Amino acid sequence: MQTLTIDFICSLDGYGSAVGWPGWWGMESPEYLEWLDTRPEKDQPLLMGATTYRVMSALVAEGEPGTEVLNGIRKYVFSSSLEAPLAWENSTLISTDAVEAVRRLKEESDRPLSTIGSRSLCRSLLAAGLVDRYRVVIFPVITGATGQERIFDDYPDVALELVEARTFDMRTQLLEYIPTVLDGPPV
Predict the structure, then answer these.
(1) How many helices, marked H, and strands, marked E, lie in the chain?
(2) Which of 16, 48, 10 is nearest to 172 (CA)?
(3) CB 110, CB 45: distance < 8 Å
(4) Tens digits of per-residue pLDDT, 48-86?
(5) Which of 48, 53, 32 lies closest to 138, judged by CA?
């Protein structure tokens, strides 16, 4: 069975983006970009929801630097609002139950899986116990006034065992955990 890693980038206060700020909050350091380009799992299949599909495929179509690599990667898109065939190459639409579909993908895939964006999809996969790793890259900004897309709202309680930590260019922090969904606060 293959593993599933949830991947998020966020501000220190837990936002996935902010109004008026550039991508990566303008802090895509050379060391972080090199890590993105050289990590072994950089081309493993990606899971995403409809909103992330729309945003990312538009960025690729507009020629946003660094996004062209996504064209060659297998993408599984979970949506009841999109229609097949999807225009973005290597994209497969899955309109059935995401939890059951990901359970099958983990069993049938020949490669590990990871997510890109897709807060609600990630939340449901985590709650179902399908997530093996939870990786967050925290950018050193607080976007309390302009932040959008709070990542951790409506999540279950989760214990996190730290298995990797790394700092890029002395400012951006990568934290990777093994998650355990809890029934409530520890006793």
Answers:
(1) 4, 10
(2) 10
(3) no
(4) 999 999 988 988 888 876 677 889 999 999 999 999 999
(5) 32
Q: Confirm whether pTM is higher than 0.85.
A: yes
- Rounded Cα distance between 77 and 86, Å, is 9
Q: What is the CATH number of domain 4-181?
A: 3.40.430.10
Do residues 155 and 126 touch, judged by C-beta distance below 8 A? yes
**pLDDT tier at 37, thresholds 50, 70, 90:** confident
In one-letter notation, the amino acid at residue 173 is: Q
Contacts with 40 (C-beta within 8 Å, 6 or more apart), sequence order: none
Omega prior to 140 cis, within 30 of 0? no
